[in-house]
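WARN  no MSA supplied for this record, continuing single-sequence
INFO  ligand: erythose-4-phosphate
INFO  echoing inputs
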Amino acid sequence: MKFFIDTANLDQIREAQDLGVLDGVTTNPSLMAKEGITGGNNILKHYVDICNIVDGDVSAEVISTDLAGMIKEGEALAELHKQIVVKVPMIKEGVKAIKYFSDKGIRTNCTLVFSAGQALLAAKAGATYVSPFIGRLDDISTDGLNLIGEIRLIYDNYGYETQILAASVRHTMHVLECAKIGSDVMTGPLSSIEGLLKHPLTDIGLAKFLEDYKKGN
Ligand code: E4P
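INFO  complex generated
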């Protein structure tokens, strides 16, 4: 499973990259605003800064909601850097834009997906990634992980190449469950990745090994 980090914070991206297990980055307008990155040119520069830190795909979101606007923005984003994947919302015009980009060889991430039907449409339009938001479904007492399972089944039934990118991952158990279900990618905060490291028996075992080593020296 690929690990993406869901942030626009450059320090956290560097930290994840240094761990050696990072495959990409997802951002959205809210994450950009959280880092104080506003204004067209600053946002574009920030995408390039992110691409220069990581080796993998970096999702950059269009903010237009009409087809012509999405195409104009998406083409400009794709021109910025070869690692950019154009993030397009799951709306009617978005499906058309994904089909357009797919025909042009521009990679896309279909975002704000909350149902299997939406994921099926995204795959048919040729999305590179589909982003079901599991945490936000959990927030409204709906099983987000169940959606990952439904999409996996549908994509496997027909051999769709669209990669399932489990988004809105909130914690380490989400990561593990997504891996069990067969999500191709997960995107979450640094803490959801670092949580995989932790086990008290590892800490106790290491302390004992070091203590015993000292005894023999
Ligand atoms: C996906 O690409 C989104 O940026 C993200 O995962 C949303 O997560 P949130 O529900 O924690 O805001």
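Residues 6, 26, 28, 111, 131, 133, 135-136, 167-168, 187 surround erythose-4-phosphate (CB under 6 Å).
INFO  checksum written, moving to next record
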